[in-house]
Amino acid sequence: MFLRNRLLSSFPSVVLFAAILSCDSTTSLAQDSGVNLALHANSHASAADIGLPAYPGATLYKNPDSDAAVDLGFTFGDVHFKLMAANYMTSDSPAQVLAFYRKPLSHYGEVLECNHGKPVGALSAARGGLTCSDPQANHVRVNGGADSSDDHEMRSGTPNQFRIVGIDESHTGSTHFGLVYLELPKGSVSDGKSK
User: Fold this and answer.
1) SS3 sequence, the chain?
2) Domain boundaries in the chain?
3) Residue 55 · residue 100 · CB < 8 Å
4) Using one digit for the tens of pLDDT, what is the confidence trace for 75-92?
5) What's the number of CA atoms in the CB half-sphere (13 Å) around residue 82?
6) Is 187 left (phi over 0), alpha (psi -120 to 50) or beta?
7) 156 with 165: CB under 8 angstroms?
8) What's the pTM value of the predicted model, to 2 decimals?
């Protein structure tokens, strides 16, 4: 769940390249195409920015390899991408953190609980199509793994716009967790059909 600096350091160039490839326009980039390009990247994102409440008593956590929070995005014509993430730490248990976020996540749709990319409980896919992992070619890399599936997490939303609360299970004595909001360009998530 924790974003790594190597991902973030190359991110602006990857985003720009992806935006150019995603554009369906045949207009030359050297001409005035009337298409607006906007990029942003900063290290300020909070639980409220992500659309979730702050966990009582939790503090932002910055580990040596990553920032405590990040807000990245681009707009290229009608193509939009946004990633906001914040890492926190608390002395409460992982179960308490997940229980606290279950109701706020439900405001965005059915809540999937996932453990290492596999569904926990009877719900394996939300009505909107969101699953615990994406078996298709479109993967979001968080902590070096596709779809943050290395963590115990809950997620809610649609395949193109969702929120994740993930527990980093590699720490003992405290609970480290991440909150993520991800908005992918429309049509970028494969539904198994050719486009």
Assistant:
1) CCCCHHHHHHHHHHHHHHHHHHCCCCCCCCCCCCCCEEEEEECCCCHHHHCCCCCCCCEECCCCCCCCEEEEEEEECCEEEEEEEEEEEECCCHHHHHHHHHHHHHCCCCEEEEECCEECCCCCECCCCCECCCCCCCCCEECCEECCCCCEEEEEEECCEEEEEEEECCCCCCEEEEEEEEECCCCCCCCCCCC
2) 5-22+32-183
3) yes
4) 888 888 999 999 999 999
5) 14
6) left
7) no
8) 0.73
